[in-house]
Amino acid sequence: MIMDALRKRMKTIIYVIVVAFVATGALVYLRGPRGGNSQQEAYAQRSDRPVATVNGEEISYQEYSYQLNGYLRQYQNQISSNQVVGLKSRVLNNLINQELILQAAEKNGINPEISEETIQEQLDQAINKYASSKEEFEKIIKKNGQTIEDVKNTIKNSMTMQKRIEGMLAKVKADVKITEEEIAKEYEEVTASHILIKTDDKDDKDDKEAKEKAEKVLKLAKAGNDFTELAKEYSEGPSASRGGELGSFGHGKMVPAFEKAAFAMKVGEVSDLVKTEFGYHIIKVTDKKVASGEEFNSKKEEIRKKLLSQKESEAINQWIEETRDDSKVIIKDKEINAFTAAQEGDLKTAIKDYKAAIKANSGSYYLYHNLADAYQRNGNQEDVISTYQEAINKYPEQVDFYMSLANIYQKEEKFDKAVEVYEQGLTNNQDNAELHLGLGDLYRAQDKTDEAVVEYEKFSKLSGDNLMAHYRLARVYSQMGLEDKSKAEMEKLKEIQKKKQEQVKEEREEENKVEETKTEKN
Fold it and tell me: How far is CA 248 from the centre of its chain?
């Protein structure tokens, strides 16, 4: 079901996201024209139709695109094309959740009043942030066809929405309490080691043999033999090489039977056999942190606040899910419906919907990644390759398609084909640093060191002042044993850092001059 997939993805605190959307809305739109960059234009297509409806209330494409562009502006091309639909899905779901909260607030009579003084205070903050004077601010907003009154209305509406959301969520959180027992359990810890004798519950004979072996080791442990040495010799778990050491753990970190036994034991005590789904355990507790004493008392309030925050978040998420279950939510965006189907494992529907979305919107080149992924998960390897080939033919300027297809050929050890793909990419996108890096990595995987270095040197030259690029290359050279080349890249790194520090210093000096000018004018 769609709701099941949405529940899995709603791990973030809804309260924080929703309020952030509303609180920043008034100021984000002051930053300039709505046009945005080319990535924003491609990812946030315009439409007169609603992107979704919530109990009959429409969420417009304009609002959806605006919120999406806010994220794209914030991350400035850091969103890769294979992450776009996932981002779109999260943005839309946050808008849907926001609408559900606002509808619930209206039903509960939560209608706060925002005073003129508060609105003026927010306006003054905006003026100070985006301009050196009220007159300059008015010139800025006039370019967007706005007036001071328009901005004040936007601030009032945003703050009203924020207060309504806060009021509704406060109502949801009102009954959340933290008990003394919960605080104690959060504080308590056990430090233990164990010896594991694995068993397979599907085979009684294996279980019997495992139990016999475990009982033999238990006798040795109870007789006072060194537990660490016994674990190294007999334990079949991953901690055997460490003498069975598991470190410290709190409640809820181990399987129930193991946890119950460990927390009931005294320091230095060796348990009887403890059976879990993994096999038979022999546990030795080496230390315990109990909920008493000066340290515990000093941390109680900190623990209470932490648990309260966690439980409030859980209460809000549960309320959102239940409210959404009881509401009529219709998502009309083909891309997001395809993404949801893929998340649910309905790959046939996802493939059909992705293909329809690609056909409907010529700008949605990024969907080829999602379509290829759906084919991959469905076991259609030939379709994966043909999808990327089609994408390359239609969008030769999109470098990541070459990278993805070359990686597929490389995994299949079809190195000649992978090289052909990179060369085609460089023919269509001359002087692209990432393609040279990818081709260098491909040559390196084939132990063709000289060819790899040629490509890496081109990558270094084309990367300019990109700190991470030179750091990556320095590590690659070091791994290849080419220490001289690695040191040369680190020297470039130091030069770039020095240059950037000087630029920051100059910018700060310029900012100080601007602040001094503002102060003199005031």
Answer: 28
Task: Write out pLDDT tens, residues 129-177.
Answer: 888 899 999 999 998 899 999 999 999 999 999 999 999 999 999 999 9
| Residue 24 to residue 406: CA distance in whole angstroms | 42
Written in H, E and C, the secondary structure of 205-239 is: HHHHHHHHHHHHHHHHHHCCCCHHHHHHHHCCCCC
* Cα–Cα dist 83/68, whole Å: 13
Q: Are 68 and 44 in contact (CB under 8 A)?
A: yes
- Give which of 462, 460, 463, 464 is closest to 488, Cα–Cα: 460
Determine the 3-state secondary structure of 446 from DSSP. Answer: coil
Cα 254 to its chain centre, rounded Å, is 26
Do the beta carbons of residue 336 and residue 92 sit within 8 Å? Answer: yes
Q: How far is CA 32 from CA 132, 145, 218, 361, in A?
A: 16, 11, 73, 27
Q: pTM of the entire structure?
A: 0.72
Q: Give the tokens for residue 184.
A: 């104690």
Query: E strands within 121-265?
Result: 189-198, 245-249
Q: Report the amino acid identity of residue 57.
A: E
What's the sign of the alpha-carbon dihedral 471, 472, 473, 476?
A: positive
Determine the length of the chain.
Answer: 522
356-384 pLDDT, tens digit per residue, is: 999 988 889 999 999 999 999 999 999 99
Chain-centre distance for alpha carbon 42: 22
Q: Give the dihedral of Cα atoms 23, 26, 31, 34; nearest 10 deg.
A: 110
**Distance between CA atoms of residues 444 and 50, nearest Å:** 50
Q: In what order do the strands lie in the sheet with 279-289?
A: 245-249, 189-198, 279-289, 274-276
Closest by CA position to 468, among listed 78, 72, 74, 71:
78
| CB-based contact 85:353 (threshold 8 Å) | no
- Condensed to tens digits (0 to 9), the pLDDT of residues 410-433 reads 999 999 999 999 999 999 998 899
The angle that helices 415-428 and 433-445 make with each other, rounded to 10 degrees, is: 170
Structure tokens at 438: 């990818």
Query: CA 492, 494, 499, 501: dihedral to nearest 10 degrees?
Result: 160
The SS3 of residue 520 is helix
